[in-house]
Structures are given as structure tokens and as C-alpha cells.
Amino acid sequence: MRLIKSAGLCVVLLMALAPVARAHGDLHLQIEEVSKRIALEPRNAELYLKRGELHRAHQDWDAAQADYDQAFSLNRNLSVIDLARGKMFLDANWPLSALVSLDRFLAAHSNHVDGLVTRARTLVKLERRLQAVQDYNQAIDHAAQPQPEMFLERAQALTNEGSAYLEQAVKGLEEGIKRLGPLVVLQLSAIEVEVKQRHFDAALARVERISAQSARKETWLERRGDIQQQAGRPQEARESYQAALQAVAALPPSRRQVPAMMDLEKRLQTALDSLTGKPREQPEKVRPGSSPK
To answer: pTM for this one?
Structure first.
């Protein structure tokens, strides 16, 4: 009976870790409030754990560690403390210490999605990327609704491992697209990997599919031109950049004159000039004492 109760409490605390760690607005007030509760319930391990998470969000590593240690001394059945410690060590850029805590946590909760993803990130920091991929695989398999970051980070780990793993990276991103839908962030990552593979036609086909579903074409036309230029197809790249400039010119002034669109127009003109060999026009220098023409 005690084991069941402890397991139920652990689940509640595991669910509580993430939102507490994201609290940034009034951390000092929250820490003060939990401290007042601790003064009234000094044997309540969950309160120390909660305050430790607030200290972690505040990047006060020593205070967080002290609270985790106190929570564990009061209740050694709270294995979730190892997850909290692992996250804290990773946030503090102490990956070896993080790995020790996360290994201990996952020994008791082998398919815990957040624990697996946190350990995968730790392994990436330690440049043990293929081991990280295994954790990402397991996390994705056991997640009811996997997050796009899981697929993106797994693909990045494979890409950084070398060219032999690029095809596997694309397949993993395709898995994400199949499960989550054609999210642009996943498609863009797949395009980047396909370009690294020099699979330019596949990357261009993907750009065309995304562009067809997009109301605004100019950024996708720029990306198409960039890929065509990398593929050694200057004439096609020129046509794409020209089409993108025409799309920008067709926008109403209220949209065209925003900084992001002005930057895009400048990039497109620079890219087009570099392909045509046309130098950018420089304003004529006016000599002292003379008037501009």
C-alpha cells in the first residue's frame, strides 16, 4: 500500500516539475511563499522539492541543490528528485553530474519521456550522440503526443555525427511529419539535411510543396533560389530571386515597408546582383563646394 501511495505521489510531482520550472515572472515572491509554507511544515519533502525547482528556474544552483538534498533526506522514496537534479545539473552545464542523476532516475522509470529527453540532451552535450539518439527514439515511442523538438534534436544529433547518418536524420524527420503533420519547422530541417546530402531535387520538391500551401511565396522563392545556387544552377536561381522580388513588389506598402520585408528585399537584390555580376550602385560622392546633380 505504501508503494502504491508513493508511486501516485511521484506521478503528481513529475507532472508538477515542468510548469514550475517555466515560472519566470515573480520567482522571488513564489520562493518567499513556499518558504513560509516550509516554516509551517518543515517535514514536508514536496515543499522543498517545489522550492528547489523555483531556485533552478532562478538559476540559483546551490540553493536548488540544498533543497533537493533536504527533500531527499525527508523522503527517500521521491525518486523524482533525481530528475530534478538531472535537469538542474544540465541547466548549470554540468553534464557528467546530470548523467549520474538521470541514469538513477531512469533505472526506476525506464520509459519516462521527460527523463529520456533530458538524458538525451545531456548525452549530446557529452558528444555521445548515438546514445542520445537511442533515448530520443525511446522517448518518441512512448510519448502520447511527441513534441517537434524531439524529432528536431534527434535529427541534429545524427547530422552532427557525420554524413553516414544524414539519411537516417531525414527518415526521422519524415517520421515526425507523419505523426505531427507537415509542420514547417520539421520540413525546414529536412530541407537542410537534404541539401547537406546534395539531394537538391528532393530539397527543391519539398520547398515547392510547402510553398504551394503558403499564402506568401516570397521567402520560399528565396529559399528555392538559394538551393538552386548551391546546386550550381545560376539561371534557375536568378529566375527564383527575380520572382521573389516581384512578389515583394506586389505587396501593399504597409507590408512591404516592415523591417523584415525590407531585409528580404535587400538580400534578394544582393543575391541577384552577385549572379548577374552587376555591382551595387553606390551614391555619388559630392565634392566639397559643389552641389549634387
So the answer is: 0.83
